[in-house]
Amino acid sequence: MLVNILMLIAGLAVLVWSADRFVYGAAAFARNLGLPPMLIGLTIVAMGSSAPEMFVAATASMDGMRDTAIGNVLGSNIANITLILGLTALLGAISVGSQTLKREIPLMLAATVFAGYALHDGLLTRAEGIMLAILFFALMGYFIWQATHNKTPDALDDDLESEIPKNVPTFHAIIWLIVGIILLPLSAGWMVDGAVGIAKFYGLSDLVIGLTIIAVGTSLPELAACVAGVLKKEDDLAIGNIVGSNLFNILAVLAIPGLISPGEIDAQASGRDFYMVLGTSAALAVLVLSSGAKKQLTRWHGVLLLITFIAYQIVVFQSH
Predict the structure, then answer these.
(1) How far, in Å, CA of 62 to CA of 178, rounded?
(2) Is 152 exposed, middle or buried (0-12, 13-18, 19+ CB in 10 A)?
């Protein structure tokens, strides 16, 4: 049991660190190529924050643990909104002014609804995995088009500009990219192996371990990014990290078990857990997009989100 706990902790620590280094190298390399900050932020940085989920999903799927991979996606999206955004809102009201985010949030909701359609019959097929992947690449194409053609100033521009590494030699950027690519799959394997050992010891299902321990662990990069964003008064960046990560999770990461290990899924995943993802995503959309000049998440919203997270964890553990 101690070995499993140490593997989980070591895997998580290296996973979070290597994801950060991967994003640092990729973003610096992209800046050196002359790509716009908005494009780098909406693609490379957003995808990098979902790198832990991607590698955990791939590792679990290759081990035949489809429910762990799916649970990681659903649990991460729930944790991002309720736990991460809840904790961040406690630091102070988060204001939203970016028109880019106001386009991304409906896209996140639409992607979530499609994921629900894919899961509703208790199966995740390879065809559905391919469709999710196609939608992901279409979304990437849309972001690239928006970033290169939209000349209207956006509140997110300055936030992204300050976050992307400057004056990093291309050689150093490539080294960090390689380090990230090597360590991400290794650490994901340690984390999954440790989590599986703990789950078996306590009699937890593959789905529950994905929804809870692994989901919270792989959401830690978002927590760090959100807290840093709010402390720097870059509120749009904090919300953007959550929305971008959830979009990538629901399309790119959910596609992975469909492509690698298609088949039946736990009934709770397509029922209780999906509806929790849909409900929290819709709540975020209402909070951010509702009418009124001052669109912001207050400390009271943060408290409500944290209560929701705790209540959900209690329900998940009591049902197993």
Answers:
(1) 22
(2) exposed
Q: Give tens-digit pLDDT for 192-249.
A: 888 888 887 888 888 888 888 888 888 877 787 777 777 777 667 777 778 888 998 9
User: What single-letter amino acid sits at 175?
Assistant: I
DSSP the chain: -HHHHHHHHHHHHHHHHHHHHHHHHHHHHHHHTT--HHHHIIIIIHHHHTHHHHHHHHHHHHTT-HHHHHHHHHHHHHHIIIIIHHHHHHTS-EE---HHHHHHHHHHHHHHHHHHHHHTTSEE-HHHHHHHHHHHHHHHHHHHHHHHH--S--HHHHHHHHHS--S--HHHHHHHHHHHHHHHHHHHHHHHHHHHHHHHHHT--HHHHIIIIIHHHHTHHHHHHHHHHHHTT-HHHHHHHHHHHHHHIIIIIHHHHHHHS-EE--HHIIIIIHHHHHHHHHHHHHHHHSSSS--EE-HHHHHHHHHHHHHHHHHHHHT-
Q: Residue 258, Cβ neighbours under 10 Å: how many?
A: 27
- Residue type for 254, please? L
Q: pLDDT tens, 292-317?
A: 555 677 888 889 999 999 999 999 98
Can you tell me which residue has the tokens 């209560």?
307
Which phi and psi angles does 293 have, rounded to 5°? -70, -35
**Residue 258 to residue 187: CA distance in whole angstroms:** 22
Residue 296, strand partner residues: 95
